[in-house]
Amino acid sequence: MLLTILSYLFSQFSRHENTPPPAGVRIIPCTAVDRFAAHRHVLTPGLVINARLDTKILEESMSRLIEHKFPRAGARLAFRNGVYEFQIPETFDAKTPPAVFTVDEHAELYDRSGRPQIPSTLNGSQPSIHPVPKLDEFLRSKTCPKTEAEFLKPNVPMLHVHFSVFHDLTFIGVTAPHMGFDLLGFAALLSAWTRVINGDDFDAIPGMEWDAQPFAHYVPAPGSRPVTPTRTSLRGWSDLGWFSQLSFMGRFVLSAIRDPKEVNYLVRVPKAFLNEAKQNIMEELKTQGSREYVGSSDVLLAWWYKTAYSCRTPTDHTPVHLHFASSLRSRSVFAQDAPLAHPYINNAVSYLAIPPIPLSAFLTESLGELALRMRRAIIAYNADAVSLRADLRWLFEGSNATKMMFPCPPGAEFAFTTNWRDGKLGALDFSGAVVSESKSEAVAGVVFVHTVSSSDKALPLRGSGGVMMENEEVVWMGQVRGLKDWEMIRKSGAIAFAQDI
Questions:
Q1: Helix (H, G, I), strand (E, B) or coil at 41
Q2: Are 25-108+122-208 and 231-427+455-500 the same fold in CATH?
Q3: Quick one: how far is CA 165 from the chain centroid?
Q4: What are phi and psi of 402, to 5 degrees?
Q5: Do 261 and 483 form a contact (C-beta atoms < 8 A)?
Q6: Could you report the per-residue pLDDT of 24-60, keeping only the tens digit for each?
Q7: Where are the domains of the chain?
Q8: Residue 462 DSSP label
Q9: Which of 38, 77, 101, 240 could form a disulfide with 178 if both were Cys (CB 3.0 to 4.6 A apart)?
Q10: What is the mean pLDDT of residues 407-423?
Q11: Quick one: which of 423, 416, 415, 430 has its CA closest to 470?
Q12: What is the pTM of this model?
């Protein structure tokens, strides 16, 4: 009881703190979107480049880009007076660098006994499941912060870039707290970086102003009365009562007890397979006289969930709630109800919810029917900017961004997928940084993308996944499920596993 009272008194005292910002910085508050989507996570998108790169060129070009085009990327994440904020240095120097750069040089080829195989060398005309290679040590230095708390220490740059350089490959890991970047924000910075590396006109490269606040008009004015919400929560999310919350959490814990080990696998999907499936669906729609269409991502995700639930029974009608992360950048939800006109590295993501699908439908419906479910939901989401703006107004109201929202009601199932294809990470060109003695006509490109995620609080990831990259030949996904669930998928024969090939 005494501890509870002391905690309460401390929270009341802390609420009225008035700690001034450090000298020499400009302040931008983190948004409700940052807090809702990204709290506590630290992300590292990792690139594997098929050439030996000059780390001096890499460091100098990134530093220049941050200083002159993306000063927000050089910010420090801070928690001051009860609020998360970006503290952007007025000037960068040796004591206040725009980012931390670390290098591990290897005077040898990467390909040798004992090292993980880079999945880009895999082949086959059909989709397949593969173990995730252990590449983390090549993408994060030993001193790289791994928790949000470490990034909140004074004068710790938000961006940490690590290079592991071999004669034939270069690994680039770009680490930051998720509070400061979403996945397409990383992609925007990396794309601009390669333009600098390759000698593009620097003035013509779009940047992000230090004081960019595209969500500012959603922030209620101080002292204003709360707006009466048109809904109690975000579309697609469940705002459960206390009994339903207990039921949801109890079922989730029971599921974890029955299948305790989470396993992350790679899903390799050849483009030829995907394109053929899409073409067959489009021809079927044409035969039916329909003007509807499906995109390749609709087909990809419909195929994956049809595959993942192939081990279940046709009599299982459990509702499945699918959530897809969706970038807001191209939506008409910003100033003058227009999309963003400039790059934005911070979080700008909402969640597109597919209307609940009975689990049995993944076994009984055709791939085309499932892909149309995805496409129709996306079309409806894109057309309803009014509801999307209402979602944002609700999110920015009071403490809604920190409320616990649930992906489905108890008794249902859920899954999340983040699609990185718009980030075009597989198309990044680092040719301008190839070391001088080994320059060639070949493009120094990304052959694989490996992500690392960490947090000071372990969070369950089962049911989540992401489309990491694509090239001309293949699309790569990562998916997390329970080990027993994976084994049931393998036994169903719906997709080949590496150990069976």
A1: strand
A2: yes
A3: 26
A4: -105, 5
A5: yes
A6: 999 999 999 999 877 789 999 999 999 999 999 999 9
A7: 25-108+122-208, 231-427+455-500
A8: T
A9: 38
A10: 93
A11: 423
A12: 0.92
Tally the residues of the chain: 501
* 3-class DSSP state of 8: helix
Out of 3.30.559.10, 1.10.1330.10, 3.10.129.10, 1.10.1130.10, the CATH code matching 25-108+122-208 is 3.30.559.10
Residue found under tokens 């601009």:
192
pLDDT tens figures, 416-442: 999 889 999 999 999 999 997 666 667
- Pairing type for strands 349-358 and 319-327 reads antiparallel
Whole-angstrom distance, CA of residue 186 vs CA of residue 74:
13
Tokens of 415: 């899954």
Q: Where are the beta strands (DSSP E) in 227-370?
A: 262-270, 319-327, 349-358
Residue 82's CB is within 10 A of a number of other CB atoms, namely: 11
Whole-Å CA distances, 53 to 96, 106, 167, 338, 444: 26, 12, 9, 40, 9
Closest CA to 369 of 303, 287, 274: 303
List, for residues 336-394, the tens digit of each pLDDT value: 999 999 999 999 999 999 999 999 999 999 999 999 999 999 999 999 999 999 999 99
Q: Are strands 413-419 and 319-327 parallel, antiparallel or unpaired?
A: parallel
Q: How remote is the C-alpha of 251 from its chain's centroid?
A: 27
Task: Say how far residue 231 (Cα) sits from the centre of its chain.
Answer: 27
CA dist., res. 198 & res. 276, Å (int):
36
List strands edge to edge, sheet with 170-177.
Answer: 100-105, 160-165, 170-177, 41-49, 446-455
Q: Would you say 340 and 334 are in contact if contact means Cβ atoms under 8 Å apart?
A: yes
Laid out side by side, the sheet with 25-29 consists of 25-29, 83-89, 76-80
What is the CATH code for 231-427+455-500?
A: 3.30.559.10
Least confident piece of the model among 53-62, 105-114, 310-319: 105-114
Does the structure show a pLDDT above 80 at 465? yes
Whether residue 88 contacts residue 71, with contact meaning beta carbons closer than 8 Å, is answered with: yes
Q: How far is CA 470 from the centre of its chain?
A: 15
* DSSP 8-state class, residue 429: B
